[in-house]
Amino acid sequence: MANQNEKKLIVKKSWCKGCGICVEFCPKNVLALNHEKVEIIDIEKCIKCGLCELRCPDFAIYLGGMEDEEK
């Protein structure tokens, strides 16, 4: 299993319904809505806190290991 430093933020745009909950809960303003889908706008600011993953009702955003690429 990947440790926290090896995890990366992954977005499944096809699952995103554009509610914006993840955007509102992100403490570092890493996310934004673009054309009613979540988008990573500044990955360098991401502290991998997992609040976006925790709050997403559609499981469209999560912290995954390097092998978990968007499909």
Automatic annotation (TrEMBL):
Keyword Iron-sulfur on entry: yes
Pfam families: Fer4_10
Record's keyword terms, sorted: Iron, Iron-sulfur, Metal-binding
UniProt domain 4Fe-4S ferredoxin-type: residue ranges: 7-36, 37-66
Molecular-function GO terms, alphabetical: iron-sulfur cluster binding; metal ion binding
Database matches in Gene3D superfamilies: 3.30.70.20
Name of protein: 2-oxoglutarate ferredoxin oxidoreductase subunit delta
Source species of the chain: Marinisporobacter balticus
